[in-house]
Specification:
Length: 147
């Protein structure tokens, strides 16, 4: 009789732990990244020269990025290397980068990993080879007329 309340307490702790594990892992399992393989996104890049806003359209293995102010654009190939990780390489672009930067963008993939997400955005980490990593936010663009 003395152990019955203790047994109930243990059962309650195990059940609560199981519910917490399910609840905490439900929002960020790897399959959730698949929702970002196709769609329209907005990215706000803060630089020393000022802020740049990009519209991004991703469809299958192609991604088109356009600077919302200047109109410069890039077309990139996209290769998913995991549910939450993909690589991009430049196919062609109108951004006025030096030839050396264009060659790097064409030959060395930019690897991006989706770290966390909601239905409205995802937080990513991008890095090309041994360059410094960028951790930032990509917003889901719900108004595709902004293209």
């Amino acid at each position: 009789m003395l152990f019955r309340p203790f047994n109930r307490f243990l059962i309650a702790i195990f059940l609560l732990t199981g519910v917490l594990i399910i609840f905490c892992s439900a929002g960020n399992n790897d399959s959730g990244c698949k929702q970002f393989k196709n769609g329209n996104f907005t990215f706000h890049l803060r630089t020393k020269q000022g802020d740049v806003f990009f519209f991004i359209h991703r469809q299958d293995s192609i991604q088109i990025e356009r600077d919302k102010i200047s109109g410069y654009h890039s077309t990139l190939s996209v290769r998913w290397i995991g549910d939450c990780k993909y690589e991009t390489k430049l196919i062609e672009g109108t951004f006025p980068f030096p030839d050396s930067i264009q060659r790097i963008r064409k030959n060395i993939p930019l690897e991006t990993e989706i770290l966390k997400w909601t239905k409205n955005y995802y937080i990513f980490k991008s890095q090309r080879a041994n360059s410094p990593a960028l951790i930032d936010t990509m917003w889901v663009d719900k108004e595709p007329a902004n293209k």
